[in-house]
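Notebook entry, structure prediction.
Reason for the run: the old model in the group folder had no record of what sequence produced it. Starting over properly, with the input documented here first.
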Amino acid sequence: MMQAPVELSLASVAPLILPVNAAATAFEGFIAPTPQADRPASLWLRISGVQPGALTLRDARLEVCPELAALLAGQQDALVQRLAESASLAAFFVELQNMVDQLSLARPPPTSCRPATFYSSLSDEVAAIGWRHVAHLSDDLSQLDLAATDVAGRRHQLRLTLPPTFPAEPPSVAADLPAAFELRCAPGATRLADVLAQFECALAQHQQLWDSLDDLDLNAWVIEPTAAPRSAVYRRIALGQHVSLALSLDPAQPTAMPLDCRFMGAAAAVAPLRQRLHDNRGRWQPGHLLRHNLEAVLEVALPQRQGADAEEASADCAICYAYRLAAPDGEGEGDAPDISCDNAPCGIAFHRRCLVEWLNSDTTTRQSFNTLFGSCPYCSAPITVKTVA
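New structure, fully documented this time:
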């Protein structure tokens, strides 16, 4: 007689991995690889987006410490496959532990000592470009940040991770740019002067984009992002009457009309703006700044943060008085207000969850299936909201 297979428990295969919330959708802790000199005895990781009762972990997201990331480099596809095929956390951690053990034995620990040619070559290369172009150099000389200034005086940095065989082997690069930056080097020799020149060329390609976005940040009420990185092409701006506009620019065509324009606010206030955007598309002038084109097409003057009616332009939730509401699982940046009162003189915005909680506490609220029918907390006009997004 065959015995039923024994179901693995998470505690038995990964005793240092524990849930971080009551819903058991996120777990965090450590796994221990095969002991190896100069490598940590335990490696931190976090897995979130776990759906209790789901057949696989296909939708889960894995975060790991830098040491584990280095060990798993090049294994992204295999990890995605393991998540998709694992029916439980325990099964996934068995697969992950086996993968980490095999990689730990196959890859020697990194050596801290680099060949003498590395140091002499790096010294010569830095001298060639000048120390004014060096923003940061790590203590072990494995990481170098190059600094460059564009024609508008904006400062930018390019992070280089230098391999021990530099300059024979090119560095890996990371930059805060709206488009991917790919380094092209001649085989067998990498010159920092060439790297810097390629970076400056990439900066020149984004001048129109940054000019328009900087002008918008300076002369309009930008709700988000609050501190935009240079890679961000998205803006959400206040238009007044509790209406905002979210838009994204194309880095390849920064002066063209944004393909993604989304109005947020009361339907009565949004409708005329949406109609003007459709009717006045011909007014868009590619040679003009984004702000000027928006004002021409929408036939409005964009309010500025200073001097604007803060209550009218505010995008914060009128119940919790915050813009971002933390997600139930604690993941992500949180939800923005996404429900507005359709009474035009009011137009107040709310988080869906805040409004659902408010209406559920009101005895006059009616419910039909997953929709609540109640009154706006501010103007008492009828308002509806679905209990699930």
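Summary: The first strand starts at residue 17 and ends at 19.
The old model has been moved to the deprecated folder.
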